[in-house]
Design goal:
heterotrimer; A: mainly alpha; globular; C: mainly alpha; MetI-like fold; 2 domains; 13 helices
Chain lengths: 291, 624, 295
Amino acid sequence: MMVGNRLGRPVGAAEGAERYGPLTEPRWVRWLLTAVALGFLGLFLVVPLVLVFTKAFAGGWAAYLEALRDPVALAAVRLTLLVAVLTVPVNLVFGLAAAWAIAKFRFRGKNLLITLIDLPFSVSPVVAGMIFVLLFGAQGWLGPWLSAHDVKIIFAVPGIVLATMFVTAPLVARELIPLLQSQGDDEEEAALTLGASGWQTFFRVSLPKVRWGLLYGVVLCNARAMGEFGAVSVVSGHIRGLTNTLPLHVEILYNEYQLTASFAVASLLTLLALVTLVLKSLIEWKTSRSR
Amino acid sequence: MSIVVEALIKRYAGHPVVNNVSLEVADGELFVLLGSSGSGKSTLLRMIAGLTEVDGGRVLLHGRDVTDLPPARRGVGFVFQSYALFRGMTVAENVEFALSIRGVAKAVRRSRREELLEMVGLAGLHGRMPRQLSGGQQQRVALARALAHQPEVLLLDEPFGALDAKVRTELRRTIREIQRELKIATIFVTHDQEEAFELADRLAVLSFGRLLEAGPPEELYLRPETEMVANFLGSANLMVGESTAEGVRLGPVHFPLSTRADGNGARRVQVLFRPEDVALRAAPDELACPVLGEAVVDHRAFIGSFERLRLRLPPLQGVRTIAPPVPFGSAEIQVEVSRTQDQARRFPLRPGDAAWVGVQRVHALVHPGMRFLLLTDGTSRSSAALSLGAELARLAHARVTLLGSGGAEPLDEDSLRAARERLGSGLAAIDVRPSAEPPGEAVATEVEREPCDLVVLALPDEAPADGLALAEKVVAGGQHHVLLVPAGFAGPVPTRFLVCVAVGEPGKEDVAFTGRLARHLAAEATILTVLPEAEEADRAERFLEGSRRAMARLGVRVETRIRQGAVVDEIVAQIVEGGHDLVVVGVPLPGRPREISLGPLLPRLLPDLGHRPVLIIRSPEVAS
Amino acid sequence: MDAREEPVKRRRTGGRRLPGGSVLPGFGLSLGIALLYLGLIVLIPLSTVFLKTFTLTGSEFLAKVSSPRALAAFQLSFTAAFVGASVNAVFGVIVAWVLERYRFPGRRLVDSMVDLPFALPTAVAGIALASVYAGNGWIGRWLEPLGLKVAYTPLGIMVALTFIGLPFVVRTVQPVLRDIDPEVEEAAASLGAGRWTTFFRVLLPELLPAVATGFVLAFARALGEYGSVIFIAGNLPMKSEIVPLLIMIQLEQYDYAGATAIALVFLLASFALLFLINFLSWRRQRGSLREEVAS
């Protein structure tokens, strides 16, 4: 009944509780720091967030819906979804393979491989787009051959997909590597001794263990795939209705001073970001509970 | 005195984890706090250091009241189980930390550091980082660090808990040597009895937040006062016998004993003898000490320099064993024996062999320990009573007998087991007894077999009159008090008692038992008497003051109240005003014990109590 | 230490050398997929930057990257990224501290909000920040009378880069702060240290490696950032033109050689930062690994 309260350690040391006087700061310091932190976050995160929705609905519901129902906007939505649908599964397979190889085996050059996986993170999105232009563009290495065979990559959907894949390549792998590493090999080895095949071990033992981390990687990858701007901007050519993704559409509307429409479309992408954050919190809550 | 702790209290969520603990540690003394995990020993130590807030009581270090000082200003050295070294600093920086924040000159720091590292046996390792050291070495650094600022007292919180056996032994020796050399008052917290015995000048045993006994290790081992301590320090054979003018009796066997047992001729007494006090021979006339009987060897284990045996004796009339525990429903007696290898060679025994058992030395416990009887009818009505009863028993270190009585038919095993689970863990001893008799008779039979101190009964919400009738019957049927727990009770352990007395009451017994219980629960008590409007309050005041003093002597915070008006109304008003959560009423015993009446007060009071438990105290003195 | 981390030759499995040193299956397949994909999507495309640059002579290359416009862009990009990362280093520690140590209503919500810059498309962040900090914006209108023009100035770029790098320091410092044994602080207190002393002498040294990692991550991210900056920057050559924008403009003018030359310098800077990040986290890991070995 009350046994749980009879801790040898003070409650103050436990998660979720305030600390006791001598081990924390005076009240005014706590208030001040909290105010500074919240003020900083408010200024940089909350105000812009609120602004997006305020501006989006500045013209009322009708104007909002009209901006979204615009055929060009709908085409942008379709293209964005298409890019995500193509990019995410490919990156999922890559992320699983890379994480498995890195977390479970020893081999030469493993650290180099980890660094390579991180590489797209530290490459400017503009450079990321540029390299595909250099490769497939009209003046690029493969340009003449491509135009001879009438294959369009740059200023077309394949280029957008490739650039997005480059930018989002590390996301799933990065989530999975530490998870797989921390869980050790015991369960996999047990499954093998019980007669499971390699694939059975992978799908029935390893994958369920990391499913939440995997889900988060996918969610994050999806958000980035739908929201990528710089790299896509370079390779898209901004052809309305054809190669404009949602973020590019936002830019065009904004530059044409169609502010309400621009923020209306932006609010869609903001919702996507908020859903991503909610999913992340849910997943964290799940994993902390199952631990 | 270097360290004085006065009536220290710590509660978490209303539950006392350190309960009214007082202790004193002399200059240069090494004092060990021994207790199992959750006994409150670490919390007590952390309160002395100022790391945990104090809910009540005082801490004095060298006569200075430090209760409200932050840890930084108490001048203590504290050693943690996890070492808690500063990872980013070298060994030297760690050791010098306390000096450098006090602005001590570099040269002085350096020489002090060298001296300390030399002392803990790490000379020359000052340039290492903590992670480059083994666990034992890290704890040595932590010890040196805690001593650098020459603290007035040294506090060690299970410092060897994370180390392996061999390292522990070495570190124990180091600590003992350093402590002797520096003559610093030290409190050492551990759950390891061997460690406690080896280190302690004096040791104290803590259990469920209460300090049970303190004294030199040998004294506590040979002559414990309480059942808990007898059981906690080493293995014990503990039986219930009778005290006589010349000593104690276990059934037909008489042990002459110059006993310190209280002279008021308490009939029941707990008799302790240690496994090494038992002598085994092939024939009774070879034994030069009182003979318990012929026993059969159950188990034999070789444990290095000793041999450990468990023997089974046939039942002895009037003797019940407490430890080692006997299987449910058996009246046989088990005896724990340990023999040196030399003794074992002279009279080899294997399982199944027979041997005569003699006892060379016995000790009678001064405090016989309490026994609670918890009654269950197997339904959810009694579950609140079981929970509260078990919690009280844990805090009061009482043995518990769970009596299952369903009234018309005997309880089935499942509901009895469910009731047993309700009691939870951590109880000193539990006995489960199904009975075929109706509740009142079942209690009478059970206390006939062995008297108890408190009977805990459920008070059904829908039929309080039945509950009262049963309580009446139970109070009449023995020497015990009764706790009535309403089925709807769901609160924490009561901490604000209201003791309702009429002038002339309460007898010694009221104060004694209520005070004892209140002390165990860290509860406060208010003694209330209600006078008719016209009456003078003088006599009542004098009377209440006597009761107050008697209770305060037991270490209970107590105040008195006199109200004037109608009894029931005033009691209810006081309950509301004072926020009381347990009501104590005395029952005057008339000349003939079978004619006890709980009326007229209780039936009238009960509807207004709102699920508060009621403690009914028998007052034999009033009767005379 | 984990057996996997030991050199291969110490582990003898009856003469049979296991692929990847483990009985687990799929070494060849998983490594193959990873290398193939990385090669096709990352390495081959990236190599074009180097190959393209090699078509330039040394002096042509120097001329491209040291033109006044390019130099101004480099200076601006590095300065703004540095300022943004520095602001985040200071406030990131405060935010992490408040989120880990204090309890206040809405703490969980605030905690998950910190990741917003990761999840919000940069273009959205860009137009939102530009609107907020413009002269007639919600915040800009209060700053402008004070003589502070944020949007369409280098200051605006710094605001955008602060936004973009916000989660990094918070997220690297938080777990370290959480894992600090409370007994370490109690030890400091029992030795006579007050809260300030404890923070600066005991806690901060433990946090610094994480702060450094977070700083470099935020700096690297800010350096290459494009989407959130261009809307608020003003994009005046020599004044408020960042390197990614310059590359973009040169690409649009089909000056591929110029774009590539600048991109190469930029890439090398990214590689250096990546190396630094890996070095920092390797050092932190080695520290904790050693501790495990010792205990």
